[in-house]
Structure formats: structure tokens, C-alpha cells
Amino acid sequence: MSPVLIAIGGIVVLVVLLVLLVLSRIKVAGPNQAFLVTGRRGNSTTSATGEISTDSSGQKVVMGASVFVLPIVQKLNTIDLSSRRIPVGIRGAVSKQGVKCDLEGVAIVKVGGSESSVRAAAQRFLNQQQGIDVFTSEVLAGALRSIVGRLTIEEIIRDRAAFASAVAEEAETSLTGQGLVLDTFQLQDIQAEGTYLADLGRPEAARVVKEAAIAEARARQAAEQERLLAEEAIAVANRQLALKQAQISAEIDAAKAESDAAGPLAKAAQDQRVLTEQEKVAERTAALTERQLDTQVRKPADAERYRIEQEAEGRKTATIAQAEANQRATIAKADADRQATIAAAQAAAEQAKLTGEGERSRRSALAEAEAIEGAKKGEAERLRRQAIAEAVESEGAAEASAITARGQAEAGAMDLRAQAFSTYGEAAVLDLLVKVLPEIVEAAGKPLAAVDKMTVISADGAQSLTRSVAGTVAQGIALTNDLTGTDLTALLKAVTDRATAKAGNGTTAAGSTAAAGSGSGNGKGIESVPIDGTTR
Amino acid sequence: MDPFVLTLLLVGAAGVVLLLLALVIGDFSHLGHPDADGPFSLPALCAFIGGGGFAGAIAATVLDGIPEAWRITGSIGIGLVAAVPLAWLVVRFAGALMRMRTDETLSDSHLMGALGVVISAIPAGGLGEVRLSVAGQQLKYNARAEDALAPGTPVYVIGTPSATSVEVVSVAP
């Protein structure tokens, strides 16, 4: 290897090492460090008196920066600026009020960040930096005791500004001169003698307890109220539910019943229809039966009834005629008896008059008295009778007028009828008579018709019965003559004569009529006695 | 190798070894004014020895062939001439670093005129606390004032009675 190259390499190495050596003399302070470089010479000043003095600028203070330190001739010292936590505790400190108390606190202390502080701290603590804690703790304990003496316990506890001010004042006097800064000081515990502190809080504690109790009670009240309201709402809802359930179950039951009844109902409807049809059949059957009865029973019965009625009518008429005849005979006899009795009575009265003349005078007095009494009674009676008589009279008048009116009406009717007869002529009259005759005969037969059983005791046999009927007819004709004023016999005779002269048919008509009249007697089982059907 | 050249190289190497020793175990010699890294400081000496040795070695190699006496004299002369400026450069470099500007250290005079705000009420005649803004950092100081000042009041520093307390006046409008 060439010596030239070696020499050049050596020069390069030499230059690099030189630069490194020079740069190694630069020292850099950390943010928590202060450098105090000593060994340099301070600035010298000459005073007016010519005295030369040197300041301390040779001791260079560097914080958080770099500094070139010459080896050997200069010395680099490092001060730690970090905070130190220093517990402080004092016992039996007396407060402004004289209350003894124990205090525990903590102080945060560091070396001051200014040039003068670093210089002062460096002078005191450079080689005993661990001693800062102990030293400061003792100083602060004394300071705290002094602070407590200046303040009341309430101020210590509550008045932060006053406490801080007192602490600052103490720190100014005790720490600043040593280059230390009290960053903060906090009390951690304070214990007063006896129950002073506890008593301080008691009113407030009592108030808080009271308020808590009140709040609790109110809350419980509200909760209870709400709970009751909720229960009420639940009860209401339950009632609603129960009602709804009952309603629904009722509806279900109704529907079930309806569905259950549907079958029977349908069956009933069916049965009803069947019954209706059966009823119709029955009606038809009844109608048929009725019609059958009509034709088979009622009609014959009606005919029979009619026949019986006719017979009875005939018998009744005959009986009436007989009774009237008897009555007239009785009346005539009674009249005769009366006349005889009157005559006898008049005779007796004449005799009595003669015998009773004496007696009469005696009794006349009595009679007079009685008469006076009777007159009064008679007056009353008279008035009463008069009223009755008036009533009877008016009744009679009314009756008379009614009879008159009826008579007039009948007379009118008679006139009209007579007129009609005269107008109709003989034929019409005859026709009427022919119509009337059967009724007459029937009336004559009526008494006989009423007879249930008849036994004829006569020498003539059963013919007397026929005679009786004929007699009755004759009486009826006479009655007719009296009532109508028409000579029915003569009329009949004239007709008969005329008929005989013409054809002789009238007898047949009369005979058939008589036959009909006698025939009616057959309905009532008369004991069979043959009757000769002789007629006029 | 020429024994003369070898000797010169060894002289240069001795300078390097000295530098290495100084770097590893620290400076062990300082000659001169304590306020400056003088011409007799270790780096300057090492630069002079090393530079002279290596430069002389180069010169001796280059001057090979001329008479031996001339060669030795010439080589040493060239070596010295080369070593002096190197040593001077090292001294200048160290001096420049020694006088370099650094952050100024905070002193009481910097607080004058600083603006801040009261953080603990200042009672009249008593001490409170203020926070001051100085050179970009927030610092807490104890403070006095003629009048009582409530927390939050802006203040202006008018005096520094101690390293940890200031005297302030309110600048509140």
C-alpha cells in the first residue's frame, strides 16, 4: 500500500475525530434540569472609586438549552427542577379560636424556574438534593402551625382564598429565599379536639335528614296513591272483563239454545203442517158427515116436527073454543046468582035499618069523632088516590088513544081489505077462504091434538069424535062470521051451488081438506077406533 | 517502506490515538484560557501532531529521489506548514461553538411588564395568586396589589419583590 494513501486516510480519520471531540463538549439540559456552569470568569466592572468587582455571571445558568463546557477548566452542575410531593402533618395546632386541631396536608414543592432561584437552590441543595424533602417538610410544618393560628377552623375548611393567601405569605418568608417554590398546598385531613367538627355539621345533617324523611314520606305517599289508582283501574278493568265475559257467554248460551231448539222447532213445524193437513181432512170429513146427516136425519126430522106442530095447533084451537063456550055459560050463571043475592041483601038491609035506628044515634057520636079523624085520614088518602087516579087516568087515556089508533088502523085496514075484496070480486074472496079453511079446521083439531090418549064413550061409538070436530068447525065459522062480518056459510053455500052447477069439483077440495085435518090425529097413537070418513 | 516515511506516519497515528483516547475517557489536558478553547487545547494539539505527521509522510513520499538531507528537511517543513492551519481551524470551530447562542434563562427582570390574570383573590395588603404569561410559558406567582382584586381580573406586573412574588396593578377597564 502506498504511504500516500495511508497518509490521506489518516488525515480524513483525524478530521472526523476532531469534529466529534469538539462536539462532545456541548451539553444539553433536559426540560426538568437546570445547568449551572462554573469556572468561567464574571464580568468585571470598575466603580467610580476605581474599585474593580466581578459579578456572578461567570456561573452560567442554563435551563432547557445547550451549553459548551470546556473540560477541566469548567464544571457543569445539574439541579433537578422536578416537583416533590412533601407530606406535612401537625398535631395540636391551636386555631384562632383556641380550638386544638390536627392537620394533615401535602405540599408540592420544586426548585424555582428563574435564574436567581436556581442559583439560591444550587448554593443550598446542590449536593444534598434528597434533603430538600425533609428540610421543606419541617419548614412547612412550622408554617402551617402559624397559618392555623391566624385562621378559624371554619375559614380553614371553607375559605380557600384566605387559606391560600396565608400559605403564600408563609411560603414567601420561608421558601422563596431558598430558591424553592410552593406550587400548591392542600389539606388532606383536619381533626378538631372533641366533637367540634361533628357539631359543626350536625344542624345541616339534621336538616338533610328531615328533608330526606319528608321526601321519602311524600314519595311513599305518591307511590301508594299511584298504586291504589292502579289497583282501582285494574278492578274496573276486571269488572269490564267479567261483564264482557258474561255477555259473551250469554250470547253463546243463547246461540246454543237456538241451535239446540232448531231441530225440535223444525220437527214442530213439520208436525204443525201435518196437523193442518189432518185438520183439513177432518173438516172435509165433518162437512161430509154433516151433509149426510142433513139429508138422512135433519130433513126427515124437520118434516116430522112440522107435522107434529100442525097437529098441535089444531088441537089447541079446538080446546080454546071449548073453554070459551064454558066461560060464557059460567058468566051467565054467575050473573043470575048475583041478581038473586042483591035482592036478598036489599031485603036484609031494610030489616037492619029498622033495628039499627037506636043504635045509630049512639054510634053517630063515635062515628063523628072517628069521622073527624077519618076525614083527615081520608083527605090524605084522597090526595094519594087522586094522584093514583090521575096516573091511572092518564095511563088509561094513553091506552085509549092507543086502542083508538089501533082500532082506526084496523078499521083502515078493514076498509082497504073490503075495498080489495070488492075489487077482487068473488073469486078472490073464495080464493082467500079456501086458503083460510084449512087453518080453521086445523084450529078445530088442535084441542084434540093435545090429547095424548082418548077413550070415546058414546052410544054412537067413535063417530062422536068426528062430530065434535065438525062442531068445532061450525063454531069457527060462526066466529069468523062475527069477526069479519061476512056470512061465510052463505058464501060457501053459494060457491058450492055454483060449483055443483058447473062441475062439482069443490067437494073434492073440501074433502081433501077435511081428510088432512083428521089425518093429523094419527100422529099420536089414538086408540084405534075406525072413523068413517064422512064429510059434507 | 522508507523508515523516514514510516516514522512520519506513526507521528500522525499518535495524534489519532490521542483523539480516540480523549473521546473514550474524556479530556485529560487543557492548556490555555478557561474562557476559550485555546491553541494548546487537546484537539488543537492532536490536529497539529496528526496533520503534521500525515502531511510530512505524503511530502517525503513525493520528494523521493532528491538528496536525503533535503528530503527530510523539506518533508518536515511541508508537514508543519500543513499542520498549523488545521490546528487553527479546530480552535476556531471550538470557539464558535463556545459562543453559540442559546435560550435565555428566565430572570426576575423578564417578569416586569408581563400581563396575567388573577386566579386567587388578592386581598388588600395580602397575597393572592396570578398566572403570568412569560416567554410563551404560563407561570404562577404570588402577587400583591394595592387594592383587593377578584379572580379573573387582568393584571400588569410592576415589580418583583421576590423570586416567587410580583406586584401587580389591575388593567381591567
Automatic annotation (TrEMBL), chain A:
Domain Band: 29-219
Molecular functions (GO terms): protease binding
Pfam families linked: Band_7
Coiled coil stretches, renumbered: 220-258
Disordered: annotated segments: 503-536
Gene Ontology biological-process annotations: protein localization to plasma membrane
Subcellular location: Membrane
Biased amino acid composition, Low complexity: 503-517
Membrane among keywords: yes
Sorted UniProt keywords: Coiled coil, Membrane
GO-annotated cellular components: plasma membrane
InterPro entries, sorted: Band_7, Band_7/SPFH_dom_sf, Flotillin_fam
Family to which the UniProt record says this protein belongs: Belongs to the band 7/mec-2 family. Flotillin subfamily.
Listed name of the protein: Flotillin family protein
Organism: Nakamurella alba
TrEMBL record, chain B:
InterPro entries xref list: NA-bd_OB-fold
TM ranges: 42-63, 70-91, 111-130
Record-given protein name: NfeD-like C-terminal domain-containing protein
Domain of life: Bacteria
Gene3D superfamilies registered for this protein in UniProt: Nucleic acid-binding proteins
Keywords annotated in UniProt: Membrane, Transmembrane, Transmembrane helix
